[in-house]
Specification:
16 strands; 18 helices
C-alpha cells in the first residue's frame, strides 16, 4: 500500500470521526497508478477503504467483533472507471453531441448538456446546434466568464477553466476551502436503530446492512455509487427518480443491487407516497441542488419530523456555503472550475484541457457518502441518535489537489477475465459480467442480490 494512499485514508477516516483502532485493521494490497498529475489511484483506494472501515465498525457495533478490511488497489482504480462488462450489447453514449470543452474568446469553457433541459438552456444562449463542430463558432464569440454566467442564469450547466490559483482566489473557492471535507451533525432520535430485525438466515454470513432501508434520491454519479456500495452489504436500496428523468449511459453501471421507482413530488399522490417511504427509511441520500427539496416543502426540519432518527446525507456540487452553494454542477465541471483540467493541461504540455483519467471526484465522493451513511448508522446503534452529513464534489477536489502527487504513466496491468466475478448478471439490457469487488471485509462478503435494472422498473414500495 502506498504511503500516499495510507495518508489519504487516515485523513478521510479522521474526518469521519472514525476510531484509530479501526484504522489498524486496514490493508491495501497491490501497486500501480492511473496516469495523472494527481494521485487518482491513491484517492480511489483511500475512499473505498474509508467506506469499508465504516462497514467494519458497524459490524462491531451490531455483532461485537471488528473484522479486517482489505482493499485491492488495482481493482479500486478499475471501479473508478466502470465495473460492468456487457455481453452482446453496448452501453449508451456517455456524452450528448454538443457536450464538451470549447475554446472561447479568452480561454476554455465546458458545456454539460447531457440532460435535455440543460442542453436547451445552453441553446437559449448560443442557438440550436446539432454537434460540437457547429456549436464551436458560437462559443468562440463569447468570453468564458460571461458565457458561464449566461448559461447558468438560464438554468444550464457550464464551467470556465480556471487555474488552481484562480480558484483559490475565487469567492466560491475560498468558501469551499473553509468547509470541512465532511460535515456531520448528530440529531436526537425518536426510534432506536437496534430494533431493526436481522433475519436468522443471514447471521452466519454477516450482511451488515440487512434490514436497513436506504431511500436514494441521487443521480449522476456520486450518490448512485454510494447506494451501490451500501446495497453490496445488504441494504434495501430504493432509488426514486422523477417521471421524465433518465441517464442511459450510466444506469447499467450504478443500479446494481437496487430497485428503481418513479415519483412525481409535484402531485399529491406522489408526495404522499414519498412521505410514507421516508417515514420508514433509515437512510436518506439526496443530491439535488441545496434549495430543491426546500422548494418542494421538505427542508431538514420537515424531513426529521417525518422520519425521526433518519441518517440524512446530502451531496452538493460546489459546496454548501458561498455564492455558488445552489449552483448545478457535475464532476467534469468541477474539474474545470477548481483548476484540475488546467493543471492536467500544463502537466501534459497540451493545447486542450486535460481532465482526470476517470471521474474521480464523483466516485471518491460516492464512497465518502456511503461512509457517512454507515457512520450515521453506527451512531444509531450506539445511542439511537439520527444525523445529518454534507459533502461536495468541490471539497473532494480540494483534497485531491492538496495531495497532488501524481504519476506519468499508467502502470496497471491490463484487465483479465480473472478480475471478473464468476457467473452472469442478467441485467435489464442483457447479460453482463461484473468486476470483482474492490474490497473484502472479513466474514461479510460484498455481493449484490439484484442485477442492474432500468429506472422506474419497480413500484415505489419497500421490499
Amino acid at each position: 500500500m502506498t504511503e500516499t494512499a495510507r495518508t489519504l485514508a487516515a485523513g478521510i477516516w479522521s474526518a469521519l470521526g472514525g476510531r484509530d483502532a479501526a484504522a489498524g485493521v486496514l490493508d491495501i494490497v497491490g501497486e500501480g497508478a492511473l496516469a495523472s498529475t494527481f494521485a487518482v489511484s491513491d484517492l480511489a483506494s483511500a475512499s473505498i477503504a474509508a467506506a469499508a472501515l465504516a462497514v467494519a465498525e458497524l459490524i462491531e457495533a451490531r455483532h461485537g467483533r471488528l473484522p479486517s478490511v482489505r482493499v485491492d488497489h488495482r481493482l479500486a482504480s478499475f471501479w473508478f472507471a466502470s465495473s460492468i462488462r456487457p455481453l452482446g450489447w453496448k452501453m449508451a453514449a456517455v456524452w450528448d453531441p454538443v457536450a464538451g470543452d470549447y475554446r472561447a474568446a479568452d480561454g476554455w469553457i465546458r458545456l454539460h448538456t447531457n440532460a435535455p433541459h440543460h442542453r436547451a438552456a445552453a441553446e437559449r444562449v448560443l442557438g440550436a446546434h446539432a454537434d460540437r463542430e457547429s456549436m464551436a463558432p458560437a462559443v468562440a464569440r463569447w468570453r468564458t466568464a460571461e458565457l458561464e454566467a449566461a448559461i447558468v442564469a438560464e438554468g444550464g450547466c457550464a464551467a470556465e477553466m480556471r487555474s488552481i490559483d484562480a480558484w483559490a482566489a475565487h469567492p466560491q473557492g475560498r468558501a469551499v476551502a473553509a468547509e470541512p471535507l465532511i460535515r456531520m451533525v448528530e440529531r436526537a432520535a425518536a426510534r432506536d436503530f437496534r430494533t431493526i430485525s436481522i433475519p436468522r438466515s443471514l447471521v452466519q454470513e454477516v450482511r451488515p446492512l440487512a434490514g436497513v432501508r436506504v431511500l436514494d434520491l441521487t443521480r449522476v454519479l456520486a450518490g448512485p455509487v454510494a447506494s451501490r456500495f451500501l446495497a453490496g452489504f445488504g441494504a434495501d436500496v430504493l432509488r426514486v427518480d422523477p417521471p421524465d428523468w433518465n441517464e442511459p449511459s450510466i444506469v447499467p453501471e450504478v443500479t446494481l443491487g437496487k430497485r428503481c421507482a418513479r415519483l412525481d413530488l409535484r402531485t399529491a399522490t406522489g408526495r404522499a407516497t414519498f412521505e410514507s417511504l421516508l417515514c420508514d427509511a433509515d437512510v436518506l441520500l439526496h443530491g439535488y441542488r441545496s434549495d430543491a427539496l426546500v422548494r418542494l416543502g421538505y427542508d431538514a426540519d420537515t424531513r426529521r419530523r417525518l422520519s425521526p432518527g433518519i441518517v440524512d446525507v446530502c451531496l452538493d456540487a460546489y459546496g454548501w456555503s458561498g455564492p455558488w452553494r445552489e449552483r448545478r454542477g457535475f464532476d467534469s465541471l468541477v474539474q474545470m472550475s477548481a483548476g484540475i483540467a488546467d493543471a492536467g493541461m500544463r502537466w501534459k504540455n497540451a493545447e486542450v484541457p486535460v481532465p482526470l483519467p476517470v471521474q474521480a471526484l464523483d466516485h471518491a465522493t460516492g464512497y465518502l457518502i456511503a461512509a457517512c451513511a454507515l457512520r450515521g448508522l453506527i451512531g444509531r446503534v450506539r445511542d439511537g441518535r439520527g444525523s445529518e452529513a454534507r459533502l461536495s464534489l468541490a471539497r473532494t477536489a480540494k483534497l485531491l489537489v492538496d495531495t497532488r502527487t501524481g504519476h506519468d504513466a499508467d502502470a496497471f496491468p491490463k484487465e483479465t477475465h480473472d478480475d471478473r466475478i464468476d457467473g452472469i448478471e442478467a441485467t435489464s439490457w442483457g447479460d453482463a459480467k461484473r468486476l470483482k469487488p474492490p474490497v473484502a471485509v472479513h466474514g461479510a462478503p460484498m455481493r449484490w442480490d439484484l442485477p442492474a435494472c432500468e429506472l422506474g422498473s419497480s413500484p415505489p414500495v419497500w421490499a
